[in-house]
Amino acid sequence: MVSLVSLALFPRSSRSQISPGPLSNAHRALEGVGNCFKCHEKGAGVSDSKCLECHTEIEWLKARGRGLHAKLQNTACAKCHPDHAGRDFDLVRWEEGSPEKFDHRRAGFVLEGRHDSLECRKCHVPRLQKSGATALMRQKDHARSWLGMERACAACHADPHSHDLGNDCQNCHAQTAWKPARGFDHAKSKFALSGKHVTTACASCHTGAKGAGGGAASRPAAEVPAGSLRFKTAAFADCAPCHKDAHAGRFAGNCSRCHNPQSFHQVDKRNFDHDRTRFALKGKHGELECAKCHDRKTAWGERPQFARCMSCHKDAHGGQGLLAGKPADCSGCHNEKGWLPATYPLAAHQASSYPLEGRHLKAACAGCHTRGATPADLARLGSSRVLIRPGHAVCTECHADPHQGRFAVGGRHAQRDGCRACHTMQGFVPAMLSMAEHTAYGYALDGAHRAVPCLGCHTDLKAPRPASTLKGVREPAIFVSDTPTACAGCHQTPHGDQFAGRKSRLPKIAGDACDACHGLDAFAPAARFDHDRDAAFKLGGAHAKVACAQCHRKVRGARGQMIAVYRPLPSRCEDCHTVQKGPGGNIIVSRPSPRTSRSPGGQP
């Protein structure tokens, strides 16, 4: 019985050891007794190590702890993949019953959101099998394989960020939808959004065409996918990579020194350095409020013109400041410290048509450039009331003429140089008239007259002088030319009217007969008087030695002054002398008797 049982069983045991059944189509190349030990160990079943020697892609995955097989470390390969069940036997056994029911968590990748609703073969296709296991597959038809997939988003999805942000898409995006990127917080980035940036569309800044930072913008255009966005970049260090420079490069540096994200037109006045512009603020300009110049409604707007001062300021000179018909540069006379005082340099005045000399060098500008303006001038001077180009052909353009035209050019006593014939730039007083030049005015200065000061004859010079000779200052008249030339015009006669009817022996100059007896060197002695020639009584003998006063006694005149009597005087001896006989018959002649003297009027 035992033998029969043994014999009955032996054929089956022998057959099973030789071939339990046909191999699957995948293993058909191992068919035959000679290949058994390629999968089986002697005296044991199928060896996992031998399976992995052939299925190196599985070994690669397990070694890296990836996929379903890595989680089944203690499970024999044959438990899930038995063979010898025929050519049509499918070696892959789905515990859930089908691929669609497979619990994807077992493979290490949880299907969530949009992934959970996808068909398996939407993802498990050869073009997406990109892991290192793919190259190790012996399966020729990769479309039948479930291996080779990568868990990174970029393994299946095109990266619209062109790898700027790495492969951790889940940091920003969820599997429910690509947009919006709810996991992204711009405030945690290197560029926190504020102001207008908060409401700006992402694509306005994050485009592959803008900027010079890393990512898409740093690679050749051919490598940047069309329509890709650039997110990771260093181009936000300043505003210029995204915004057009409204200043055309004149303000290199950080825009935030002056502007803020709320509005480009909101300028931080505390940090704005106007000196970096083409118009540095100096003097009074530095004290102005910005709106005084930049207000759109009340001033000149964002970019006021500044090439000329009159772009902002009214012409205070009424159009006088012209050079060759064009407005002159105001800075030639004024600066930013203030409109006044004017800063017109002396060197410029000296190069003008009227160089300054003498007292003019010390004169205040207003003395010439405001005084003396006619009503017609005032109407066109502008608000400054400054006459920029006063007339200077003659002195009387600015100065009052105290001589009231007597010495003006073309006048009766005119000189070729007008006022400068007598006066200099050093001062109006004293006049620089020489002795020789005085003769040209009809009276030569000779003798003692040379030493007489001008005031001695020209008494109108004694009048108080004003502080200025400019027009508009009340100036006393100086009638220098009307000074009398006759001796009696300046000198009081000591002779009363004794010589009133006498005619001059010399040519008439003074208009009286004083010069008949007196010279110009001194009044006494009467150098031109000759007693023998000019008087009715010739002096001879002892008379020649008699002092004049012995005969010409002084008497009190009608006005109480003492006058020497020259005429009429007696001419007989007894009129002056008394004759007496002395002892021994001598004749004694006495001195003239006072009773014989006559007053200039002829009265005793």
General description of the model:
It is a single chain. The protein is mostly helical. The chain contains 17 helices and six strands. The chain has helices at residues 2-18, 48-54, 56-63, 67-71, 77-80, 120-123, 202-205, 291-294, 346-350, 365-369, 375-380, 435-439, 454-457, 487-490, 531-534, 548-551, 573-576; strands at residues 322-323, 326-327, 554-556, 562-564, 579-581, 587-589. It has a two-stranded antiparallel ribbon with strand order 1-2. Helix 2 (48-54) packs across helix 3 (56-63). The chain is rod-shaped, with a radius of gyration of 67 Å. 9% of the residues are buried.
Q: What structural class should be given to the helix and strand makeup?
A: mainly alpha
> Strand order, biggest sheet?
1-2
* Beta strand count: 6
Estimate the global geometry from the Cα principal axes. Answer: rod-shaped
What is the rounded Rg? 67 Å
Secondary structure elements and pairings:
Layout: H1 2-18, H2 48-54, H3 56-63, H4 67-71, H5 77-80, H6 120-123, H7 202-205, H8 291-294, E1 322-323, E2 326-327, H9 346-350, H10 365-369, H11 375-380, H12 435-439, H13 454-457, H14 487-490, H15 531-534, H16 548-551, E3 554-556, E4 562-564, H17 573-576, E5 579-581, E6 587-589
Antiparallel strand pairs: 1-2, 3-4, 5-6
